[in-house]
């Protein structure tokens, strides 16, 4: 590490659990963020400020005025700009050492198969079940840990799915692809602005823990937040040995 890096990341280095070795792992890591909106904004800003060496941000959407209530990586003068490139600019202003690759593309199966293979870790910050299942399938196929978050109205949730762990479920174990889930969107249901910040910050925390080897990850545990009461509920999630995506395993 350079002298500037030792200074920039000094508050991480002072933590015994991270230290220089943990920070060097962060600096060397490659992370894929799918979605550059309410969740992707705090995720990218925290991972960028922490020094994740290479961020790839995939999102084909553009910024509009309704996004600015909660998508804190974007600004009024960037309305009409692609969200992926806006996040790249926001992270560059915060930490120019980080390489950010903006992909203004829909995260379909082909893109995910290519990009997940290149990443050390993936963060699901999208807003629809079809993309979530595509992300999960690619992570299972390439055995890459997945930090998944969701937020709508006053309700949020976060979980880590890690196919490297024998007893870890995958996203499809919990939300089977053939189930009839009602799709809810911020555009029609609304979302409490700080909620995406809370969940996104926790996703960034789980990602940094996994990268640096600190603490116990949320693998196989679903945390659900009721933002009205600021009350958390934790559920243990078993792996489904008959899952159509991750099981049975040898």
Short description:
This protein is an alpha/beta fold and 250 residues long.
Explained architecture:
With 250 residues, the chain is an alpha/beta fold. It has a single domain (3-236), classed as 3-Layer(aba) Sandwich (Rossmann fold). 38% of the residues lie in helices and 18% in strands. It has helices at residues 3-8, 10-13, 19-27, 40-50, 83-94, 109-118, 129-142, 171-174, 186-189, 193-212, and strands at residues 30-34, 54-58, 99-103, 121-124, 146-152, 155-161, 221-226, 231-236. An eight-stranded mixed sheet has the order 3-2-1-4-5-6-7-8, with helices on both faces. Strand 1 (30-34), helix 4 and strand 2 (54-58) form a beta-alpha-beta unit. Helix 4 (40-50) packs parallel to helix 5 (83-94). The model has no long low-confidence stretch (mean pLDDT 95).
